[in-house]
Amino acid sequence: MTLTAEDMQEIHVQEPYWTAALQRLDRLTPREFEVFVMMAEGLSNERMADRLYLTERTVRAHLSAVTEKLELDSRLSVCLASYLFRNTVANDNGCRCGRREE
């Protein structure tokens, strides 16, 4: 089956709004990117702070910056974008992206 340009446009329109955020990841600082990747795990601010040796307040600041820079509107949308990144883009590129050895 061959997809037409109209089919591709319809598929693109049906993509969740947070997928576009993945094209803006270059806006993040290295630490903001670490926090972004950890969001896929559903960690609390406290747990992320412990892992990164930061205060919860600093993690909240990074999350706020991530949300703004990726043009998202909630923690949930950041989490969904992070999950999509870790399970598609990162896997396709062979990136561990903060994953710990099992």
Can you offer a commentary on this structure?
The chain has 102 residues and is mainly α. It has a domain at 27-92: Winged helix-like DNA-binding domain superfamily/Winged helix DNA-binding domain (Arc Repressor Mutant, subunit A, Orthogonal Bundle). The chain has helices at residues 5-14, 30-38, 45-52, 56-69, 75-92. Helix 3 packs across helix 4 (56-69). It is elongated, with a radius of gyration of 15 Å. The termini are far apart. Mean pLDDT is 84; it is low at 98-102.
Distance separating the two termini: 40 Å
Poorly predicted segments: 98-102
The percentage of residues in β strands lies in: under 5%
What is the β-strand count? 0
Largest sheet, in brief, is:
none
The CATH first-level class of the domain at 27-92 comes to: Mainly Alpha
Average pLDDT number: 84
The CATH architecture of the domain at 27-92: Orthogonal Bundle
In short:
This protein has 102 residues and is mostly helical. The protein is 58% helix and 0% strand.
Key words describing this protein structure:
single chain, 102 residues, mainly alpha, 58% helix
Describe the protein's topology.
Layout: H1 5-14, H2 30-38, H3 45-52, H4 56-69, H5 75-92
Helix pairs in contact: 2-4, 3-4
